[in-house]
Amino acid sequence: MITISLCMIVRNEQATLERCIHSVQEAVDEIIIVDTGSTDSTKEIAGRWTPHVRDYKWKHHFADARNYSFEQAAMDYILWLDADDVLLPAELQKLLELKHSLSPDIDRVSMPYHCDFDEYGHATLKVRRVRLVRRSRNYEWTGAVHEDLSIEEGGCLDSDIVITHRKNHSRSDTKRNLRIYELLLSSGVEFTARDTLHYAMELHQHSFYEQAVLYYQQFIDSNQRTIEDIIHVCSKLADCYYHMGNRDKEQEWIFKSFTYDIPRPEFCCRLAYFFLEKEQFQQAVYWYKLAIESPPPVNPWAISNDVARTWLPHMQLGMCYYHLNAYELSYHHNKIASGYLPDDQRILNNLILLENEILKVKEQPDLRLTTFPC
Q: SUPFAM superfamilies this protein is in (predicted)?
């Protein structure tokens, strides 16, 4: 059985740190907490769980802090988490099983990361990251912000152990990462392709759409991106142009993504919404149905959005079929959407309305409406 050091870097995480450690502590043999300058009770909380609490002077560089935390580890493998991450009980059991079964030729283990959610708790963004690494490999972190492990060799296992991000909504410094990137730019630091991508994403998040477009384009033009990277950026560019009111450019990047893979659900839904806004309901139906029918990506490292293939297109199909007077089909898709969102009042109201409309048609056969095949 392998042993695991949990390594974390933290700052002012009193609201989430204990929850994180509690969710994983059964599976780890050592906990390393590196504090980068907390002014709340973070260090006190950390001290309840481990004697290995270290101070580290913040240098506006996340990779440096991560590397320092890894240097403190003593176990066979290192697991890294952020303070607002958790392992849900089923995922903890998977990690415990992995401790007993991990093959000796595996140097790193990747895990899905559910990092953003809709208001109903459904993951809207799923990515995969290397989470567990053999300590003796001495893998290093790179990148001042949105840091990543630099790994060029070693056996890899793509596991199904899910790490869940539980965002701390009380954190007030939402522009911290943006400021770090701007500090790097002003000091003349040359961005890597990864830096360029994540700076674009920070600009995008803060509604600086025109600047974000420039940096997304720079990333696309670099030679250090994968097909999955390009598809992801196509989605980001389409969203920027939507918010900028340029629907032609939005569609251009939607269709650009189709040249790299079959249409992904998020692009189908975006295109369907374009037709829905124009009240071209048949066209919208086509694309929403395609979103539902799209198979999950074969590549385990693909970024995915399950909402775009589940409740969202079904809810929207319910609206489209209602406007097409196909009430039974509208009811059918609202009913499926309610399976994902059983307490959503909008869907419940839709179902009541549609039941009444269907009843009216049945009571007056001469007014029966033409329906469309599913």
A: Nucleotide-diphospho-sugar transferases (SSF53448), TPR-like (SSF48452)
* In the predicted structure, residue 178 carries a pLDDT above the cut 80: yes
* 82 vs 145: CA distance, rounded Å: 14
DSSP string, 347-374: HHHHHHHHHHHHHHHHH-GGGPPP----
Considering only CA atoms, give the Rg of the chain: 24
- CATH number of the domain where residue 74 is located: 3.90.550.10
**Residue pair 75/29 in contact by the 8 Å Cβ criterion:** yes
Asked if the structure places residue 290 within a domain, the reply is no
- Euclidean distance between CA atoms 198 and 225, whole angstroms: 13
How many other CB atoms sit within 10 Å of the CB of residue 274?
18
CA distance 159 to 156: 9
Model confidence at 338: pLDDT above 90: yes
- Indicate the number of domains in the chain: 1
Find where tokens 């990251």 sit.
Answer: 129
Query: Which domain covers residue 55, as residue numbers?
Result: 4-165
- Could you tell me which residues are beta bridge partners of residue 85? 165
**Residues contacting 215, CB < 8 A, separation 6+:** 196, 197, 199, 200, 203
**Cα–chain center distance at 10:** 21
**How many other C-beta atoms are found inside a 10 Å radius of the C-beta of residue 192?**
15
What is the distance between the alpha carbons of residues 374 and 214, in angstroms, rounded to a whole number?
A: 42
User: Is 313 among the domain residues?
Assistant: no
Give the list of residues 6+ apart from residue 183 with CB closer than 8 angstroms, or none. 60
Residue 136 has pLDDT above 80, yes or no: yes
The DSSP-derived string for 16-43 is THHHHHHHHGGG-SEEEEEES---SSHH
Q: Is 325 domain-assigned?
A: no
pLDDT of residue 371: 47
CB atoms within 10 A of CB 288: 30
Strand partners, 77: 4, 134
